[in-house]
């Protein structure tokens, strides 16, 4: 047998062996598992006819602008959806960011030539310069399988105030420099309610009083509003210590928290796993609304304080800022205080200093000559070799004095510093 024949025989044997091995292995291979059919979200939508005829979904104006709304106020708009096609139009509500209601119809069908109302309702929860909400309507119109209906507008606070800043009114009183009371008049009004009542006003301090009256027709026109009041706030200097202050007026009204008409509560289709506890935490409060007005002022009384060069003193808040300094070195500053309204020397009847390591000294300048004023030196000191400490805006150090001056019975200095 020649070499070529031997080679052919060996190749034939290898091929037969491979065939046998492959035949045995096929019995061990498991058939592939069938791939599950993926669910198409469009399976639940209205079906489009493959041949026609077709319906025709028509909404003349798919966008509506509410204009200006009040926070908490519910407004609704009806969109008219008409079927101008040859066969019934099937409609189905899809995703929505606001309350969407379809008018009643038989099996979600709109006959040719007929129409339905689609009501969108929105209740803004916070002021928004521009808001937009959308509802999607699915149909079996091949040219309008998804109709987008939109509402938009502007949301403002229900009540407006004089000195309003982002919904937090702040009124400033004139400086109290004598024993005469000082007053400020501000307005509270709304362009969304035909009327409302102020049930009462509470003050955080006895020396701060108020009275109110309805705005006149002329004042309402001038403010471009529907209803409102003028509130006059008066502060009695005898009830306030010297220095700056901020107090509160709480205005109680008959305005309900929920301005939505019955049956117009905002609703959403919540997905599975939605946190209903979160909804409960943001539920509308019960009872009528109250509003807080911050009232600030400065009582200088018969004293005037002048800092020495480089000393940071705020006369409106009576805060002395010592800045930052090494704890090992400490810090000492001196202020000049001029006092009027008494012939007697200013005496400290009682004092309260916190923290107790803060040093304070009041000394009369006997060389100062004036028929109406007296001059005193005020010295504030943080001793050297103290441990580093910080007294900032939220934990100011203070020196509170009780004096014999008839119009400056209480003087309070506040001190800010950081020792490193």
Automatic annotation (TrEMBL):
Residues 264-284 have a biased composition (Basic and acidic residues). Residues 30-54, 254-285 are annotated as: Disordered. Transmembrane segments: none annotated. It comes from the Bacteria. It holds the Pfam family DUF1573. This is DUF1573 domain-containing protein.
